[in-house]
Amino acid sequence: MKTILITGGTGFIAKVLFPILTSGNFHVRTTLRDTAGLSQLPKGVTGFVTGNLESITDWKPLLEDVDAVVHLAARVHQMNEQASNRETAYDRMNVEVTRTLANACSQAGVKRFIFLSSIKAMGEETKTGTAWTEASLCFPQDAYGRSKHNAERVLNEIGRKTGIAVVILRTPLVYGPGVKANMARLFKIVDQKWPMPLQSVENARSLVYILNLVDAIRVALEHPKAAGQTYLVSDGEDVSTPELIRRIAVAIGKPARLFSVPLSLLRLAGRLTGKLETIDRLIGSLTVDTAKIQNELDWKPPYTMEQGLRETAEWFRKRNRL
Hints:
Elements: E1 3-7, H1 12-22, E2 27-32, E3 45-49, H2 60-63, E4 68-71, H3 86-108, E5 112-116, H4 143-162, E6 165-170, E7 173-175, H5 181-191, E8 207-209, H6 210-222, E9 230-232, H7 241-252, H8 263-273, H9 276-283, H10 291-297, H11 305-321
Parallel strand pairs: 1-2, 1-4, 2-3, 4-5, 5-6, 6-9, 7-8
Helix pairs in contact: 1-6, 3-4, 5-7, 7-11, 8-9
């Protein structure tokens, strides 16, 4: 039975990954910022209270007899972040912690290192009708994306030098029960039946349902062809922003209230309100081609987007009844 260490044990993705791995007869360990996280762990998961991962100088106790690491912990992208040392803060957590952990893994005999990256390591927008592949050039546009891209380069170099099997998974927006940030806000807007001026948007966006993502992680942990590879992961179905809103509305059981406004006016409103970045995401395209992971690892998303949105809507309704 293999032992897996997962960083970021109280995070959105880890909570869903735990039962998938423990039911697959893996021993699972995880890192926690404080003791409060211990009570949230399911049966079969051992928690190590490490505090901030940036402060760890010795990973040996956590890596003893570990076969593989799934590195989920990260400083995540935050809208309207005002930190004056933003670039340094992202690099410290997303690059240097990753470097230290990967080197410790190679010294401890860990065989495989799964790194959850982000599509933002590649950039912010694709041309409508064109999807990124793993061979596409990377032009990250913000501190978070640059830190993820730099971490990928560090890991690939460590993999080449030490032989540890690095697997990088790049994801677009991840959604599912427990989702926060922009997707949670979109569910709230639809639920409250607010009108949205997005009827005329003709873009395309890739998403990934959390259960599809953790299934890809499960496959990447063991498939021999995954070693040393980078993969894009999504639901395999792209939708425009108005179509996504309509699907969320159906899942929630509320009407989708859409109306048309010229895109130029939407961008002007974004500039005037300081929300241009949000507007650009709503009206721009960002799509990925998942042919590589499907062909090389024989992986296909086990859940449809419709199923994912329905489960997310059910969680949203239950949360708002509390």
